[in-house]
Amino acid sequence: MTIINMFLKDALVPSSLLFSLVFSVLFFPITANADLQQTAIDECVLEHLVSSKLDSAARLITRSCEENFHKPNFLTERRKQYNACLLRHLKGVESEFAVHKILQVCGKKHLRFGAPTRP
């Protein structure tokens, strides 16, 4: 008989309630952290999409926000700076040519080899 079974045998708390309690305690911090990340992403998107006029710029802004806030520990410092550059300069852009040039310049400046992807 395992230690858990011995505990449950003498416990006044039903095993299903105990399982629910343990699951809640372990799972809550994960969901709370995910909610905070999503809130940060949403705030970033709202802040930077206000004056967006092109779908390609909107997609790049959204991707940059998601990358910077969803899993920031997996990004290199250069990639974070590249995303920040895009977020700074894509606001209000009105031409596809400008979007492409911003991708190129931010890529050269921060990634050292140009833009990694096209919109």
Topology record:
Elements (H helix, E strand, L loop, with lengths): L2 H8 L4 H35 L5 H16 L6 H13 L6 H15 L9
* Quantity of strands, as a count: 0
Low-confidence stretches: none
- The arrangement of helices and strands along the chain is HHHHH
Main structural class: mainly alpha
Mean pLDDT: 79
Question: How many domains?
Answer: 1
Distance between the termini: 60 Å
Q: Whole-number radius of gyration?
A: 23 Å
Count the helices. How many?
5
Describe it.
The structure is a single chain. This protein is mainly α. It has one domain. Helices cover 73% and strands 0% of the residues. It is built from five helices and no strands. The longest helix has 35 residues, at 15-49. The model has no long low-confidence stretch (mean pLDDT 79).
Briefly summarize what is shown.
The chain is an all-alpha fold. 73% of the residues lie in helices and 0% in strands. α2 (15-49) packs across α3 and α4 packs antiparallel against α5 (96-110).
Keywords summarizing the entry:
119 residues; mainly alpha; 5 helices; flat
